[in-house]
Specification:
Blueprint: H1 2-55, H2 60-69, H3 73-77, H4 79-98, H5 103-113, H6 116-125, H7 134-162
Helix pairs in contact: 1-4, 1-5, 1-6, 1-7, 2-4
């Protein structure tokens, strides 16, 4: 039984290591997608912002209202796509700004508040690797240690719960 236990620990350690080294890699690929989308959205929006700067003191909401209030159907119909372009720019700008932190902060943000559409996009196109830089190794070892610790605590709790382990015989 001891051999099985140690084998399971080694498997958990290896799986944790392989999974852990992927975390910085995934976050890096996610951030590159966010940056690319942000640059694209900013470029697409630039012309509208220039118009808002010239005619509405930089207020894009005023430009959108002007489009919506227009009697010209073509100009009026531009309001909705303009809103979408503006919302996309703001969305990626927020993500871009949120990722200007430490790796731990980036991992936390992606896991808890990351842009779900971009996370799925990154996952679909993810190219796993085995980076051997210090950061990836530290993350891999940390995940491995957490997995092993959780496993050992679970085994300890199960042994206590079911009183599995050494049985001391009563001297008779």
């Amino acid at each position: 039984m001891k051999t099985f236990h140690y084998t399971l620990l080694l498997i958990l350690f290896a799986a944790g290591l392989l999974f852990g080294v992927q975390i910085p890699n995934f976050v890096d690929q996610y951030q590159k997608r966010i940056d690319t989308h942000y640059l694209e959205a900013s470029e697409n929006f630039k012309g509208f912002q220039d118009i808002a700067n010239r005619f509405h003191n930089g207020n894009i909401e005023e430009l959108i209202k002007k489009h919506e209030a227009s009697g010209d159907n073509t100009f009026n119909a531009e309001a909705e796509p303009l809103k979408k372009i503006f919302a996309r720019k703001i969305r990626f700008e927020r993500e871009h700004n949120a990722l200007q932190t430490s790796l731990f902060g980036k991992v936390k943000h992606v896991a808890m508040a990351g842009d779900r559409e971009t996370i799925e996009e990154t996952y679909r196109a993810y190219s796993p690797g085995l980076p051997l830089d210090t950061t990836s190794i530290v993350w891999g070892l940390s995940i491995s240690l957490v997995l092993i610790t959780v496993f050992e605590l679970l085994m300890f709790a199960l042994r206590k719960l079911f009183k599995i382990g050494r049985h001391v015989e009563d001297p008779v």
